[in-house]
Amino acid sequence: MSRPLGLRKGFTLIELLVVIAIIAILMALLLPAVQKVREAANKMLCASNLRQIGIASHNYHNDYFKLPPGYVGPLVPGDASYAFTWNRQWSGVLVILLPYMEQDNLFKLLREPVNQGNPYLPPTIPFWNANADAVINPSVGNRSSVGWWTHTGPTPPGGNFVTARTKLKMFECPSDTVREDVLYGRFIAAHCYSYGFTGGYYGNPDGNLMGPANYVGVMGGWGDQTTPYYGNYIGIMCNRSENSLGQITVQDGTSNTLMFGETLMSVGVGQRQWTATWMGVGSMPVAWGLGRGNSALADGSQWYRFGSRHAAVVQFCWGDCSTRGVRFGTTASSNFDFTVSSDWHVLMEMGGRKDGENDNRASILD
Question: Pairing with 22, which of 40, 154, 155, 224 sits 20 to 30 Å away (CA)?
Fold first, then answer.
């Protein structure tokens, strides 16, 4: 029998609701898997970023027979007090590595402000040598006089202040939203000394324009402190450090020593207060442990800890350029536990380059 004209077979309301319910269930089942796959990819890319920074440091070593310094802070031994002062360049290790990471054109835009001679010198490598500044360029003399941000032009247009706004994905962890606006500003300098860690940040709105970074060098327990305990755990990337791979190999071994790691420099949940900049933050200590960045801490240490937005680990590049994750464990700063084999103590050992210790690391190594 023929069907009346104008009538078509279709889905009933109940059938549509059933189809929608099935799709919703499938999405609920698949979404966690998709998120896990995405995070796994992000971790791989993050590890690749760290590895490339490590390789760049090794290539720098091939040219100058030493690894780059963690950052260019107070002169050593020129500043006997090691006090924080703005009268230094305060450029970080990532700036020094730009020519070794296919960013030579960006490096050439930078200018090194000084108080003597030509006030806008192009940066030279190495321009941080504490004892040979005058030898590098006799017409200039001491070239460690003012902060990198003081050069605002006219060559190149806008100067360092504008060049530092360049966003570089190779310095950013893909699991983090490091480019989002921050509450206070971005750190343009950081320094570890006398059992403390301090720095300066550029306030908003200009602070939010600065190029952020998630990766910094590891300066060991508390930098180049010579105190009875922390003096045993001096790291690779300290203020104006000049360590060779040979020294690290003989003392602790490159595969046993942390060289670069991740940091949030703020809480990881909710609006961020600060972030690091690739231009000004060079290295950090491990004494405060690893932070998840879930909330603000009473001692404010969330901004000077190594930390990440990965589910369970903070990723590090070791001295041999291998990358591994380190679990948070009980390494947090509230657990200053000098007991040998504690998670905190083991982290200190991994950060130090000449302690000669090698406790069981299974509790925190991923």
Answer: 40
What pLDDT does 259 receive? 97
C-alpha 307/C-alpha 286 separation (Å) is 10
User: How far is Cα of residue 256 from the mean position of the Cα atoms in its chain?
Assistant: 19
CA atoms within a 13 Å half-sphere pointing along the CA-CB vector of 173: 29
Residues 295 and 269 sit within 8 Å (Cβ to Cβ): yes
For 81-91, how does the pLDDT look when each residue is reduced to its tens digit (9 = 90+)? 455 566 677 88
Contact criterion met (CB below 8 Å) for 325 and 315: yes
Do 187 and 274 contact (CB within 8 A), yes or no?
A: yes
* Interatomic CA distance for residues 297 and 281, integer angstroms: 21
Q: Can you say how many angstroms the Cα of residue 330 is from the centroid of all Cα atoms in its chain?
A: 21
Q: What is the DSSP letter of 311?
A: S
How far apart CA 128 and CA 26 sit, in angstroms, is: 58
Provide the Cα torsion 282, 286, 290, 294; round to 10°: -60
Cα–Cα distances (Å) from 48 to 99, 132, 172, in that order, read 18, 35, 11
For 291, phi and psi rounded to 5 degrees?
Answer: -115, 140
Burial 165-199 (b: 16+ CB within 10 A, else e): eeebebbbbbbbebeeebebbbbbbbbbbeeebeb
Neighbouring residues of 70: CB distance < 8 A, sequence distance ≥ 6: 92, 93, 216, 217, 219, 235, 236, 237, 238, 239, 241, 282, 283
| Sign (positive or negative) of CA dihedral 155, 159, 165, 171 | positive
Taking the C-alpha atoms of residue 216 and residue 261, their distance in angstroms, rounded to an integer, is: 6
Say what the pTM is. Answer: 0.84
What three-state secondary structure class fits 68?
A: coil
- 3-class SS at 257? coil
Residues in the chain: 366
247-300 pLDDT, tens digit per residue, is 998 888 999 999 999 999 887 677 788 899 999 999 999 998 887 655 555 455
